[in-house]
UniProtKB/TrEMBL annotation:
<protein>
    <recommendedName>
        <fullName>DUF4337 domain-containing protein</fullName>
    </recommendedName>
</protein>
<keyword id="KW-0472">Membrane</keyword>
<keyword id="KW-0812">Transmembrane</keyword>
<feature type="transmembrane region" description="Helical">
    <location>
        <begin position="351"/>
        <end position="368"/>
    </location>
</feature>
<feature type="transmembrane region" description="Helical">
    <location>
        <begin position="138"/>
        <end position="161"/>
    </location>
</feature>
<feature type="transmembrane region" description="Helical">
    <location>
        <begin position="201"/>
        <end position="220"/>
    </location>
</feature>
<keyword id="KW-1133">Transmembrane helix</keyword>
<feature type="transmembrane region" description="Helical">
    <location>
        <begin position="380"/>
        <end position="399"/>
    </location>
</feature>
Amino acid sequence: MAATLLATWQFKKAGDCHQNAVAEELRLQAAVQEEARYVYADEAPLAFRVAAASSRAEALKALKDDGRLAASEFTLAEQETVSLRHSAGPGSIIGSDRYLDAQKGYDVPRRLAHEEKNPAAYRLAPDRTMEEGDRWAAWGRVSLAVAAAAILAVMAAASVLRPAAWQFPPSTGGSRRLLRGIDPIPQPATASSDRRRGTQMHLLVAVLLFLLPLLQLAAASNEQRAQAEASRQALRLGAAIVASGQREAFLTQAVTASQVADIHAAAREVAVLYEKDSPAVRHERAVAAAETRHASQLRVMAEYMGRAPSDTDGVSAASVAALRARPEDWPDMRAEQNRYKALADAAGDRGLYLAAATALAVVAEVLADAFLEAGRLSRMGWPAGIAALSIGITAWTVLS
């Protein structure tokens, strides 16, 4: 009894830990999505625009005194850079040179790592919480094994013949205790020879009624753990789709901007291709060449700023996993989530079958007790058949 109660408490603690792990995973993945949205959707596009304008101004700086075209384009790019940076808050990505690389643009993953240091969600460790629940469940299984061993020991003791003096010790006088002679466990060893076989069958049914709840307890714990893991996998998949989608959208937009800049440079070159040579034509060709170099630099910036973060950037493991996920990874993630769901369904089915086996054992127990009390030993085949069916269902459930 004590081992069963201990196992129940241990499995309850395991279930609490598994549910806490789901709650922690929810908070963590929600933080991952929110920070990815803020950095890659709100800050990074503006940072790329500032970096692009600064790069364009730098490319045209050497030509601004050679003609009005370069001077005008240089002024526009320079003013755009200055205005946007001055209008931004000092704590934003473009508010200082903290994240700026003059050749590559802004270090967006490092900015993300800085943003992650504030929310308490990133200090959560759902994996460790899940492992703590697994340790409680392991101790619960140990307690179940002890309880099952005790039940089997009682069954063996009840079946061993004992001296008559050990069966019912004589009273020492005084009033007879109310519960004296009452035994909740059938005793084949003390039963008369004509009732011993029926009592043995009765004992087997009683043992089933003690063992089956233990198996149900283990099945319920397995189902709860699998459900928790399936929920965590679903949360990770959702965060990966959203976060990686934000990063990929920014990278696509930045690469497209570099391609558009290259098209504009080529168009400017074509515009003066058949013009007569003159200082203005030579100046425009020089501007086109500078814009071509600028377009190549934009491509470098786009790939640098939109790169997938890694552990070396100081980004949390949860954000790294979400932001590095690719569409081709999603089927495997869905398959893992479905695998845990299937495990939960299977554990739930086992619990249902064990409940059915327990109900049959209860019917067998009632019939066996009634037939033994009435002395109708010829009808003990009915409870024996029902008990056999219960044992069969239990064995199939455990082995399947």
